[in-house]
Recover the amino acids of this structure.
């Protein structure tokens, strides 16, 4: 158990895996210089989910299929494209689009199910009565704050 406790804080601080996307092969198809693209692959870290809970008057617990929260960091992304001079030779500069890293929070879908019978009824001498079963889907969510800028230098 001590080793699991020591690994847990390290897993929570996983950074995105850096990736440089090779786009040089585009130059053989399109007669322009290929853009440079560097980004990263986010590594999702699962969090603790809320356990199903008892609700008075219901036979099945609420939140029977809980939502799983995930957190990750959206990586810094940089795209640079040389801009050619349309009137002559050479380049005007480099157009670059850059997004900074930001935190991302995601929750998976969940479900809530109601039993096809009611709770025991005193007027029926403690017998349940049939009811229409209930099913609800808990919607997934995606929360983040990405921002980007475009620059010609």
């Amino acid at each position: 158990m001590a080793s699991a406790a020591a690994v847990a804080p390290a897993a929570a601080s996983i950074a995105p895996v850096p990736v440089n996307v090779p786009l040089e092969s585009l130059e053989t198809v399109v007669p322009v210089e290929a853009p440079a693209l560097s980004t990263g692959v986010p590594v999702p870290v699962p969090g603790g989910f809320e356990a199903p809970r008892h609700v008075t008057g219901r036979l099945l617990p609420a939140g029977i299929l809980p939502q799983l929260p995930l957190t990750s960091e959206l990586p810094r992304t940089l795209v640079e494209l040389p801009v050619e001079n349309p009137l002559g030779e050479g380049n005007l500069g480099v157009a670059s689009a850059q997004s900074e890293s930001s935190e991302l929070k995601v929750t998976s879908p969940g479900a809530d199910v109601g039993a096809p019978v009611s709770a025991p009824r005193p007027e029926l001498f403690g017998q349940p009565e049939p009811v229409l079963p209930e099913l609800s889907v808990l919607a997934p969510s995606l929360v983040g704050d990405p921002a980007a800028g475009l620059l010609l230098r």
Summary: The first strand starts at residue 17 and ends at 21. Helices lie at 2-12.
